[in-house]
Amino acid sequence: EGEGLKMDAGRIQAAGIILAQVEGGSLSSEIVAQGTVAGTPQGEAVLAARADGVVSRLSLRLGDAVSAGQTVALIESREASTIAAERATASARLTAARQGLAREQRLFDAKITARQDLEAAQTVLAEAEAEARRTASAASAARVSGDGRNTGVVSPISGRITAAPAVLGSFVTAGTELFRVADIRQVQVEASVSAQDASRILAGDRARISLPEGDLDAVVRSITPGVDAESRSATVLLTPSATTGLRPGQAISARILTRDGQGGAIGVSVPEEAIQSVEGRDVVFVRTATGFMPTPVLIGQRSGGRAQITSGLTAGQTIATRNAFLLKAELGKGEAEH
Description:
Layout: E1 5-6, H1 9-15, E2 19-21, E3 23-24, E4 30-39, E5 44-48, E6 53-58, E7 65-66, E8 71-76, H2 78-109, H3 115-141, E9 150-154, E10 159-163, E11 171-172, E12 177-182, E13 187-194, H4 195-198, E14 206-211, E15 214-223, E16 233-240, E17 251-257, E18 268-271, E19 275-278, E20 281-287, E21 291-296, E22 298-303, E23 306-311, E24 318-320, H5 325-337
C-alpha cells in the first residue's frame, strides 16, 4: 500500500472511474430523497392553437430545435379572416379620416367652414387611429398571416420539441396543445420528502444529485409549505449547479445536507461503493498526484448507500467512488506480478 497505484487521468477516464470529494457531516443529518428533473417556469412552454381551425402547416417534429419567436405551425381559421378584414377596414377608415381632416383644414384656413367642422374631423381621425391600433394589436396577438387566412403558433422560448401531438390537416379548437417545448438549460429537481424531514430543511441547504457520471452539487431553492394529500410528502425544489446530464422527466436520487451536518468537525462520509476490502481490511482509494493510494478506514453507520468514516479520511480528499473495484483488481494484479 505504501507505493500506491500509478494511473493518469486518461486511464482513469477510460476505465470509467468516478471521482468525488470526501464530504464532512454526519449521516444522521443527511436526507435521501427521490426526485424528478423538471423544467423551470421559464424553461417549459406549451404551444396551443390560438383559434379554431385546420392545421395547415407544421414546421417542426419531435426532438427538433426551436428558437424563441419561431413560427412552428399555421392554423387556417375563420377568425383569422375576420381579424384581417377588421384590420383592413380600420386601415381604410384611417386613410379616409386623414384625408377628411386635411380637406377640413384647407376649408377652415380659407374661412369657408366653421371650427366645429374641423374639430369634428379631428375627432373622427382620433377614433380611426384608435380602431386601427386595436385591430393591428389583435392581428399581431393572433399572429395573423399576411394573406389573412392563417394564425401562427409561435414558441416563446428556445429549446427542443418534447411533445408534438399536432396532426397536419386536423381540426383543432382554440387552446388545443400542438407542441411542448423545453429548454434543457433551465431545469430544476423536484424531490419528495416526508413532512418530518421537510421541517429540517431550509432554503440554501446544500444537496448532492446522484448521476451515472458522478454527483452534482445543488442548492435547496424552496420547500412547499404543505404536503400532498395522496403521497403525504412535501416537495423540495433543488437548483443544480450545472445542467449537464439532466433531462426533463428523468428520475434521480438526491442527498440533502441539513444545516447541522454541513461542517466537517462531526465526521465524514463516502458512498458505500467507494469502500473495497483488501486483505481483510476496508480501504478507500485516495487520489494522489500520480494515481491512487489505498487507505485503510474504519466504518461507522451506513445509510442510504453511504457510510460514515470514523478514521482514515478527512473532508475534502478526492477518492474513487464508482468502479473503485477496478482499482482493487489492479492492485491485486500488481501484487501478483511481484
